Amino acid sequence: MPRPELLEQIYTIVDQIPPGRVTTYGRIAAMTEGATPRMVGSAMRHLPDGHQLPWHRLIAASLKLADHGGAERQQRKLRDEGVLFDAKGRVPAHLVWPD
């Protein structure tokens, strides 16, 4: 689990991802002061109950959903925001935030 100050950075950045857009674990990590993509994933897995963070807007660098138990729910939430997936399950690159 990342240090508390890194968690705060990760959560602050994730909270800024606009509806209908996605970003990668690596992009979030690059915006922090020392987190790795794996740390970002760990932070998302350990979100506190009742959080309002848009966890579903984080995807793998391959622009596919990460393979986890909530992937179906994640895809449904993204589709509800207008995010489309190609035949291989990837999100179009123009939807990756930030530009």
Automatic annotation (TrEMBL):
<feature type="domain" description="Methylated-DNA-[protein]-cysteine S-methyltransferase DNA binding">
    <location>
        <begin position="8"/>
        <end position="83"/>
    </location>
</feature>
<dbReference type="GO" id="GO:0006281">
    <property type="term" value="P:DNA repair"/>
</dbReference>
<keyword id="KW-0808">Transferase</keyword>
<dbReference type="InterPro" id="IPR014048">
    <property type="entry name" value="MethylDNA_cys_MeTrfase_DNA-bd"/>
</dbReference>
<dbReference type="GO" id="GO:0032259">
    <property type="term" value="P:methylation"/>
</dbReference>
<dbReference type="InterPro" id="IPR036217">
    <property type="entry name" value="MethylDNA_cys_MeTrfase_DNAb"/>
</dbReference>
<dbReference type="Pfam" id="PF01035">
    <property type="entry name" value="DNA_binding_1"/>
</dbReference>
<dbReference type="GO" id="GO:0008168">
    <property type="term" value="F:methyltransferase activity"/>
</dbReference>
<keyword id="KW-0227">DNA damage</keyword>
<protein>
    <submittedName>
        <fullName>DNA methyltransferase</fullName>
    </submittedName>
</protein>
<dbReference type="InterPro" id="IPR036388">
    <property type="entry name" value="WH-like_DNA-bd_sf"/>
</dbReference>
<keyword id="KW-0489">Methyltransferase</keyword>
<dbReference type="InterPro" id="IPR052520">
    <property type="entry name" value="ATL_DNA_repair"/>
</dbReference>
